[in-house]
Amino acid sequence: MARTLPHRIFFKDTMFEFDLNSGPFNIKEHVLITIFANSGAGTVYATHILSAVKLLYKRKLGFLPAFLVMLTTQVLGFGWAGLFRKYLVEPGEMWWPSNLVQVSLFRDLWEQTRRAFGGHKKVDIHTKLMQKYKSVPMWWFWVILVVNIALIIFACQYYNESLQLPWWGVLLACGIAVFFTLPIGIINATTNQQPGLNIITEYVIGYLYPERPVANMCFKVYGYISMNQGLTFLADFKLGHYMKIPPRAMFMGQVVGTLIAVMVYTLTAWWLMGDIPYLCDTTMLPRDSPWTCPMDRVFFDASVIWGLVGPRRIFGDQGEYGNINWFFLGGAVAPLLVWLAHKAFPSKKWIRLIHMPVLLGSTAMMPPASAVNFTSWIILGFLSGFVVFRYKPEVWKRYNYILSGGLDAGTAFMTVLLFIALGLQNIGLDWWGNSGEGCPLATCPTAKGIMVDGCPVV
Question: Superkingdom, according to UniProt (predicted)?
Answer without folding.
Answer: Eukaryota
